[in-house]
Amino acid sequence: MKKLLLMFLSAFMLLTFTACGSEAVNTTAKADSGKEAPAKQAAPQSTETAAKSGKILVAYFSCTGNTKALAQTAADILQADIYEIRPEVPYSSNDLNYNDETTRATVEQKDDSARPALADKNANISAYDTIVLAYPIWWGQAPRIVDTFVESYDFDRKTIIPICTSGGSDIGSSADYLKGLMKGAANWKEGKRFGVAAKDEVMAYLNSLGI
Fold first, then answer.
1. Beta carbons of 54 and 30 less than 8 angstroms apart
2. Are the C-beta atoms of residues 199 and 170 closer than 8 Å to each other?
3. Is this structure's pTM higher than 0.85?
4. Is 209 left (phi over 0), alpha (psi -120 to 50) or beta?
5. Termini Cα distance of the chain
């Protein structure tokens, strides 16, 4: 009788251990399959990496709004970030009087060494591969505030696309002059002057550059 009871207890314990082992294997299989295991959270993106997600920057200076419109059109087409080059002391309409030799803009444009102060130097140039530089033509060149901007950053290994606005003058030597001021070995594309920021014209130009 005792022998029969021992055999019964042994069989019961064997069945219990087998059932427990089977459940453990099933639980592990479910976790490994990914169906019930908690999903891994993506590592937070660093500020630097987030900034580099925008590879193109449109940096512009505008007084009358024409260049701002061109810059915004280019930024929309390229889905680029945009940055306004602002002088510490804004230009007034009187400053732009071409007929007065004593006006601020006239005096600055006649002085190659003039460097109007910037309101800020917050353009994160290092975060971008391509910089679209938009400016008006004043007396055949970019405004001196653009000279200040160009000399304030390192553009090494950046692609530079100069675009400008003018009522009549072409881009002329303005891009070449800025290129001579720029720090670093940048890749300059052929620039273009726009009279009006027509989207089709701007898009055709950018497409021709492979941008």
1. no
2. no
3. no
4. alpha
5. 93
